[in-house]
Amino acid sequence: MNLGAEAVQVGSRFVTSIESSAHENFKQYIIASEEGDTILTLKELTPVRLLKNEFYTQLQSAYQDGADKEKLTEILGRGRAKKGMFEGDLIEGELEIGQIAGLIEKIMPAGEIVQEMMTEFHQALNEQKNYL
Prior knowledge:
It is a single chain. With 132 residues, the chain is mainly alpha-helical. It has one domain (11-131): Aldolase class I (TIM Barrel, Alpha-Beta Barrel), CATH 3.20.20.70. It is 47% helix and 6% strand. The chain has a two-stranded antiparallel sheet. The two termini are 15 Å apart. 18% of the residues are buried. The model has no long low-confidence stretch (mean pLDDT 93).
């Protein structure tokens, strides 16, 4: 808002909510992540931001070997996102999450996440008013 945004996409923040259907392993991996642990990749297929893991390393090797769209599709396979995010395979699974992952520090109820966002919003709004 302070920078002129009229809306935000906050799905990644709710992945680590208690109510989320994401696997506990995935939630804990997000909490353990740090800034810079996500990378935008697979732009040739459907751009996704992934946490680094063995699957990500396989993709990077394929890119270095000059993989084309067909090879990337083969590596991706079917159900890899489900394997990582919902079945908790942190090695072979696709771990999609936004760039904000490194700032998420704990698993919370969704209602508390919303309340925290609203509190921060009102604080920012008050700071903006005080600045003007």
